[in-house]
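User: Can you recover a sequence for this backbone? Please restate the input before giving your answer.

Assistant: Of course. Working from this structure:
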């Protein structure tokens, strides 16, 4: 997870802009680009990024059937992995085109539908051949 802050206060000053936020709540405009980022605001942004990262790692671990520490250790730490390496690391099941995957899903769905229709026919005493 990445959360960027661009301090445009010097640029705005050169243009003669001065932004004033009227807010309710102490931190409502915290992190606004028109102000330099305070250490407190940066710490809060880091806290939120860490929380989202933890949730993301947990979801990936659950989806891939591995422990969270394995995701953190082996799944790139935010770096890109190429397809073959991702399969090797168990980040992906295989390499396929979108068309291949869609065709397989449709074939499985069609086979499941055929089995259900046949089971319904048997349950209703109808011939299946």
């Amino acid at each position: 997870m990445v959360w960027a802050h661009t301090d445009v206060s010097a640029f705005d000053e050169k243009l003669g802009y001065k932004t004033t936020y009227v807010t309710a709540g102490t931190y409502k405009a915290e992190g606004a680009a028109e102000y330099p980022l305070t250490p407190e605001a940066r710490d809060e942004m880091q806290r939120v990024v860490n929380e989202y990262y933890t949730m993301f790692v947990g979801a990936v671990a659950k989806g891939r059937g591995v422990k969270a520490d394995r995701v953190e250790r082996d799944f790139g730490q935010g770096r890109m992995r190429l397809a073959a390496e991702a399969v090797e690391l168990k980040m992906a099941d295989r390499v396929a085109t979108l068309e291949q995957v869609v065709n397989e899903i449709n074939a499985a769905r069609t086979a499941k539908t055929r089995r259900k229709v046949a089971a319904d026919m048997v349950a209703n005493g109808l011939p299946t051949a």
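That completes the design. The two ends are 56 Å apart (CA to CA).
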